[in-house]
Design a protein that fits this description.
- The complex is a heterodimer of chains A (227) and B (67).
- Chain A has 227 residues and is α+β, with helices and mostly antiparallel strands.
- Chain A has 2 domains: 15-87, Helix Hairpins (Orthogonal Bundle), CATH 1.10.287.90; 94-226, Immunoglobulin-like (Sandwich).
- Chain A is 32% helix and 26% strand.
- The radius of gyration of chain A is 23 Å and the shape is elongated.
- The two termini of chain A are 31 Å apart.
- Chain B is mainly alpha-helical and 67 residues long.
- Chain B has a single domain (4-58), classed as Cytochrome C Oxidase, Chain I (Irregular).
- Chain B is 78% helix and 0% strand.
- Chain B is built from 2 helices and no strands.
- Chain B starts with a helix and ends in a 9-residue tail after the last helix.
- The chains are: A alpha+beta (227), B mainly alpha (67).
- Chain A: One of its GO terms (molecular function) is cytochrome-c oxidase activity.
- Chain A: This is Cytochrome c oxidase subunit 2.
- Chain A: The chain crosses the membrane at residues 21-42, 62-84.
């Protein structure tokens, strides 16, 4: 989850999120280079150190058309690389369905004995000491660690969005439509997210909690939930 | 004063290029590369089972309550 006054991304818990963080660093570097260039030229112009009496300059026009085009290509290529990486056919080990309702999520693990459950936020009045306000749920989405998980996201009523920032996942839940996303986490742990599409009065109060555990533990959990 | 504009323009255009490349390189070697190294170092000797046992003992996992 995010810390107080956090500005940057949460630490990555999946390879795709690590790639996205690397791309963000790259894009920010390009933006920093351009902004510092403009700031320097603006300062020199405003302090009278740089001026021009040129009215017709074909060479510089060519330069400041070609150079920005090259910068855009430098941004587009890594971006497309990650986009295609996210869409790779990756033979998921587990498929689960996340359905958005007003105002809770429900999950269906139909690979395993028709396991279905609802996931409501724990109200602050019922929250045990040390737990995270507006982020904890009564039933977490448990997944096995180091396994490719496919999530089919849809909604029952209005638009929602299933997002877990640390896993690099955000997928819109559209009524009447199935959207697919996948993730893999090499770490056991608890990962928090929140509904990311305005869906009514309690849009801020339908969080998502993904818990990844080793496979034997996951199997034990799914057996206990099914019974 | 002869060729002042040309001289100044050459100097400042070069200066602008140096400033922009310098700030990009500063970010790259001050932020981006240390971040990549931090992730490499974290995963080099990472033991997921050890991490899992620590989380289980701390009681943070719903699917693995502490005994």
């Amino acid at each position: 989850m995010a810390n107080h006054s956090q500005l940057n991304f949460q630490d990555a818990s999946s390879p795709i999120m690590e790639e996205l963080m690397g791309f963000h660093d790259h894009a920010l570097m390009v933006a920093l280079a351009i902004c510092s260039l403009v700031l320097y030229l603006l300062t020199t112009t405003l302090t009278g150190k740089l001026s021009s009496n040129t009215v017709d300059a074909q060479v510089i026009e060519l330069v400041w058309t070609i150079l920005p085009a090259m910068v855009l290509v430098m941004l587009a290529l890594p971006s497309l690389r990650i986009l295609y990486m996210m869409d790779e056919i990756n033979e998921p080990d587990l498929t689960l369905k996340a359905i958005g309702h007003q105002w809770y999520w429900s999950y269906e693990y139909t690979d395993l004995k028709d396991l279905t459950f609802d996931s409501y936020m724990i109200p602050t009045t019922d929250l045990p000491m040390g737990h995270f306000r507006l982020l904890e749920v009564d039933h977490r989405v448990v997944v096995p660690v180091n396994s490719t998980i496919r999530v089919i996201v849809t909604a029952d009523d209005v638009l929602h969005s299933w997002a877990v920032p640390t896993l690099g996942v955000k997928t819109d839940a559209v009524p009447g439509r199935l959207n697919q996303t996948s993730f893999l986490t090499p770490r056991p742990g608890v990962f928090y997210g929140q509904c990311s599409e305005i869906c009514g009065a309690n849009h801020s109060f339908m969080p998502i909690v993904v818990e990844s555990t080793p496979l034997p533990n996951f199997e034990g959990w799914s057996t206990s939930m099914s019974s | 004063m002869r060729g002042l504009l040309a001289r100044r323009m050459k100097f400042h255009l070069l200066g602008a290029f140096v400033v922009s490349m310098g700030s990009a390189l500063l970010y790259k070697f001050g932020v981006a590369e240390p971040r990549k190294r931090a992730y490499e170092d974290f995963y080099r000797n990472y033991d997921p089972m050890k991490d899992f046992e620590a989380m289980k003992a701390a009681g943070v996992l719903e699917s693995a309550p502490p005994k």
